[in-house]
Amino acid sequence: MYNLINDLYQKQRNLVSIDYDESLEYISKILPLKIHKIPSGTKCWTWEVPLAWEVKEAFIENNGGKIIDVKDHPLHLASYSTPIDKIISKEELMKHLSSNKERPNAIPFDYKYYQNDWGFCVQFNKLKDFTEKNYHVVINSEFKEGELKIGELFVKGELKETIVLVAHLCHPAMANDDLSGVSVLVDIGKNLLEKNNLKYSYRILFLPETIGSIAYLSQNEELISDMKFGLFLEMLGNDNFHSLQFSRQKNTEIDKIAENVIKHNQKEFKTGDFREIISNDEMVFNGPGVNIPMISISRWPYPEYHTSDDNISIIKKENLEESKKLVLKILEALENNYTPIRKFKGPPHLSKYGLWVDWRDDLELNKMLEKIFLEFEGDNSIVEIAEKLNLDFFVLLDYVNKFLQAKLVEKK
Amino acid sequence: MYNLINDLYQKQRNLVSIDYDESLEYISKILPLKIHKIPSGTKCWTWEVPLAWEVKEAFIENNGGKIIDVKDHPLHLASYSTPIDKIISKEELMKHLSSNKERPNAIPFDYKYYQNDWGFCVQFNKLKDFTEKNYHVVINSEFKEGELKIGELFVKGELKETIVLVAHLCHPAMANDDLSGVSVLVDIGKNLLEKNNLKYSYRILFLPETIGSIAYLSQNEELISDMKFGLFLEMLGNDNFHSLQFSRQKNTEIDKIAENVIKHNQKEFKTGDFREIISNDEMVFNGPGVNIPMISISRWPYPEYHTSDDNISIIKKENLEESKKLVLKILEALENNYTPIRKFKGPPHLSKYGLWVDWRDDLELNKMLEKIFLEFEGDNSIVEIAEKLNLDFFVLLDYVNKFLQAKLVEKK
Amino acid sequence: MYNLINDLYQKQRNLVSIDYDESLEYISKILPLKIHKIPSGTKCWTWEVPLAWEVKEAFIENNGGKIIDVKDHPLHLASYSTPIDKIISKEELMKHLSSNKERPNAIPFDYKYYQNDWGFCVQFNKLKDFTEKNYHVVINSEFKEGELKIGELFVKGELKETIVLVAHLCHPAMANDDLSGVSVLVDIGKNLLEKNNLKYSYRILFLPETIGSIAYLSQNEELISDMKFGLFLEMLGNDNFHSLQFSRQKNTEIDKIAENVIKHNQKEFKTGDFREIISNDEMVFNGPGVNIPMISISRWPYPEYHTSDDNISIIKKENLEESKKLVLKILEALENNYTPIRKFKGPPHLSKYGLWVDWRDDLELNKMLEKIFLEFEGDNSIVEIAEKLNLDFFVLLDYVNKFLQAKLVEKK
């Protein structure tokens, strides 16, 4: 995972661009991706696919020479800036400069998608060097017909019902946002490919944010009805505990499973409602007319967000590893969750079936024995029982599986 | 509005009485009222229409002459007092005297409806003048066949569904309770008559409290099913902020609209549950077997309530004007409320349709854009979305109307 | 009631045993019980009826002679202990001794049902006398085919719907747990037999805990569908206020009635959720696949619980009497509860029908008059209206019955 980030983080990925295509090509060598190509101008619901954008050169110069040059750092130029070659006043220039007072030595990330405008991004501390009255601004950028590309890995399971796993790949020259999510998702893809007894099918997508999801879904509407749940991954390499953002529905199976797994496996974490922690493609997948419950897992917030400080130095291998394990555990719980239905009447004679758990072996479970066997009425799945009784999903699963083996319950 | 109160407040209006009829006649000259006449003794559900009550004279005298005389103030005699001409002891007399210690110089309002009893109302400070042992009590009152009268203005709209607006007119010799509500309702009637694009039909009623509503509805049961909502008006001229009393159902469209309008248009106000602020005809309209959600708007409480101090001096023109505007705004919102249904898929491309609202133009709206377009699933009307997101009804209405014009939503 | 306890409390009742049978025989002389006999080994859902257990002798001796002998107190031997005749080390013996540090001079109650093990119960203060290295342990107990017995009194009412009243009878040599519940239930049985206008039918059961209920229900499954509610009685002679344990459903008619009656008739009481106060046969009746809402009434807790101190000395006649009255009052409310449906329209003219209640006669009721007549829409029974308005069930019943007599409401 770390290598992928290290190899790709300096590329100037943009919605439709050469560096984006090269990054997707790189992933294709690890996973057998199907690449969807959707031409510029294609109508996608209320949107359309933008033109490709390429930059040959972009700089600001004054009498002393170039003071800002995109060759020094891709983030110096706001994505999708329109071309210009003009001498303008300082006052006019300042309207087009972004900087970040909170991190004065970092170049912020900015973009002009759909705005027909241009901009440069500058370290806040460099603003004081703009002492002259006029500046020569050159942006040699080109907008042309291109193809928006989406990388898809489909892993077939027993059911047609699909879990969609998404990471976006369109953020230029940064590491944690968005390559850390991409790298973890690549490993999860490898892991799923190795399994041969999956219950659900899985659709893993690498795409440009928002327009990528809209383009994919609008061109593949027939897939939506089989999409049961979604999971968005991003910002997983930095040093912070995990944040779980619930789906718009909030109380679905994947919400409950993710919360149970994170609660029983992580010392610290936080949870938040839809769009209250981070904003990404869940607004498309879980949005109007689609509405697939999609949770997000990240390590938001982190101070280097959307600046040139978001580089390989803030990525820790063990964080990526821990996040991967967490997501795999959530998927494992999702695969194994079921609704037990009682086949016995009366309180079952636990000791006779080896179902008695002594408090000396597991105090928490011991206290719950009676409450557990009252929950086999077909109203609640394992995760819902676990939630009600505040038990670890996997501890409860193991115990209920014993009822299943004793034929005291069956799966609904 | 002020003139109506000034012209009528000294009349001795009672359930069925000459002064009541004259007051209704006065209103008839302003609005084209239909007058319903229901004879004494008519069965009205579990009630019946009372006899007319007229007083020729009523006084209490001792050796020094008359000490209380209804000629001095109509409130001196409790409404519907039975006739008497008798010398009685002070002890006996005291059982029939009402006074108000809190307002010692005011004559309180009292009534003996359905009680077959008599009473006088006296300033508390005057009680000390009752120093003699015996008193001559004379009430020359007459109970006779009459007609309970109800004034009705019907304004036809596009729909058969009717909004009922009610004020009672039976309180003798007071100004704020009940003529201020009557005067505001007269002006609202004029306003509605001028409109030619009303969605709802309106039924405006002036009647004696409780028995008037029971008589009207019991004799016109076929109208009930078209009555969608009701609004009761009273005590609107005094100096206090508005009180909104919710309907019995509490969460209906008119409750939500009234609360939204009052919240976004009045600095101070209070709200309360059904019958927790004031008690009037909403117990009939919103009561057993009828149950039309009826809210009440008043400026309750005020210290002069039900005394001779409730006269023209406590009525302020600007209060009446403000109350009228508030009620008209509630009706306007009711007329314009609708349920938007989404016709787009995915998050709409707001800027493309001119639906983007910059935070510099409207910060409150800007923060809610995303939450607004998630609410077009047909579950919530404009007022319900406004309530959820804590927005002004009319601000939200204007914004959602732009989606309507762009054909991104349609009306349910 | 007191006599029954006094006569029976020293018997060594066990699940299937001679003393149990004799105790049931004793009750049979008071109530016309039907005795169900279910042979050892009978399959009862996931359980089976145990063998009868009889003890001829049981003691522990050392060189100085017998130091513990079941002849001194039946509780010295754990119920259903297996036979033994062996010299064992002190260390080994100690694993088989129960004592209670909290009540050092009392013999605790212990049992080895379904465990194939043996044990003695000793006063904590006596443990210090076990100074030798080896002990001769003799238990001359016998397990043999027998019959589990259940005493049933069925009192037929107008309806097939049955109220099940249960007390267990299998606790050896104690008074409050479980004979106090048995004694109160016997008196309730006598009381019900005297009535000739019962709405519900009643099924009163005396049985061994858990296995008795399982045996009864599994062998009489066809009765379950008519069982509407259940009530379990136990620990009613000690000095403590009453505890009401709700059914698993918690919000059923019997839960609400019991709570109303206890609240308006007892100065002190507590309530608790299912299985949070005491654990008895409600887990069978209100358990998986049966699920008859069963409340429990007791005076839990008390310090002598499950020890030899739970004897006749802690039983007070007035407590038994008070508990009996409380239960009878609950049953009376249950018999009389109904759902009133309005036949009037509009607010009823209360005074005309003698339904006006002056605040000087009953302030609490006076304040509620209007709220009461709004509740006759058929959604709420008397107890539910009483709960909403915080009124005594019987006060409200009397008042609503006046509406019934005036034909203003009818029963649903």
Write a brief structural summary.
By secondary structure, chain A is α/β, with parallel strands linked by helices.
Q: How would you describe the overall organization of this protein?
A:
- 3 copies of one chain form a homotrimer.
- Chain A is of the alpha/beta class.
- Chain A has 3 domains: 2-49 and 147-336, Aminopeptidase, CATH 3.40.630; 53-144, Domain of unknown function DUF2172 (Glucose Oxidase, domain 1, 3-Layer(bba) Sandwich); 340-411.
- In chain A, 29% of the residues lie in helices and 23% in strands.
- Chain A is built from 11 helices and 18 strands.
- Chain A has helices at residues 2-8, 18-28, 90-94, 176-194, 211-219, 253-265, 282-285, 317-336, 363-373, 382-389, 393-405; strands spanning 34-39, 43-44, 47-48, 52-62, 65-69, 84-89, 97-98, 120-121, 134-144, 147-155, 162-168, 201-207, 227-233, 242-245, 269-272, 294-298, 340-342, 409-411.
- An 8-stranded mixed beta sheet of chain A has the order 1-10-12-11-13-16-14-15, with helices on both faces.
- In chain A, helix 6 (253-265) crosses helix 10 (382-389).
- The mean pLDDT of chain A is 97.
- At the A-B interface, helix 5 of A face loops of B.
- Chains A, B, C: Residues 53-142 form the DUF2172 domain.
- Chains A, B, C: Residues 2-337 form the DUF4910 domain.
